[in-house]
Write a structure and sequence with these properties.
four-stranded antiparallel sheet; alpha/beta; 2 domains; 351 residues; 39% helix; Aspartate Aminotransferase, domain 2; 15 strands; seven-stranded mixed sheet; Aspartate Aminotransferase, domain 1; 11 helices
Amino acid sequence: MITFAPGPSKVYDALPAYLQEAYVQGILSANHRSAVFMNLYRDTEQLFREKLQVPADFTLLFTSSATESWEIISQSLVEQSTYHLYSGSFGKKWLEYAQHILPATQGHKLAANESIPVDQLQIGPEVDLIAVTQNETANASQVSMSVLRELAARYPEKMIAVDTTSSMGGIVLDFSLADVWYASVQKCFGLPAGLGILLLSGKAKEKVARKGERGRYNSLSFMLENAASYQTHYTPNVLGIYLLYRVLQDMDPIAQVDARLRERMASLEKVVAQSSTFDLLVDNAATRSTTVLAVSGKEEAIAAVKKAAEKEGMQLGGGYGPLKASSFRIANFPAITDAEFMRLVDFLKNH
């Protein structure tokens, strides 16, 4: 069964070989204070710079999941409040978690087809950080780099944090436009769940140093102190980090990955747009995700196509939250081969 669910999604076909390598090399029992681990951490961070174009002043940190970053950001980087720009369920959850920690936190909800109206935003001086859900997995909407550039230009004094859980590793991200970026490995990195990625800019690290927070296990001060010597503050998912390292080693430069995914998505969008049964949930191309497509339709049609796909050995992702019964989602992640993806496109042409 080939899964097109948007996470956890299909893992890379090379994963069994990577696992065997990890076993043979003793990675499974490597101490996280050892030279073996420190070299692995250093080399993984360097591959982020080489393959994903992460600037030199950024530091790579590891967490258990992308959502763990919600609390870390609020507790270690914000003094008064954050301002959240979001369109779906995951962006809303980030806002709600932040409000538990910082009650003055505010949010601006957008429609999935609506681009952020940067010139109309009124974000006051009490806001320390602007939070952006760049790729909203729940409704398959996306914030472009051009919009992020406008936002950074209008509010240069504020930090910007970006959720790229379903896009990092799949599309070109301009990391210079924000101070905090986070993701998980079970989507575009094609790995099992259980490892989160947190990237901090020089500006963010300076803020952590000024805030001088201590006494919390997951404080960025504690995490950065360990990262300075390529260690972690807790016993990490060493296997997950090794697998991420191997994926980054073998992946094409991100510009090539981006071009391939956009070409595939264009083929899929064309089929859905021509369908008499289904519609694109996000019909504004400017806010439609490159890595996840949401397709809407009548509940009976959605149920029927998912059942038909399973008979053909393909699992479509279900809708999320209030969209559960009236939509399905398709992951366009790099671990899915071109042949597999086009097989799905051909299937949908006849449904």
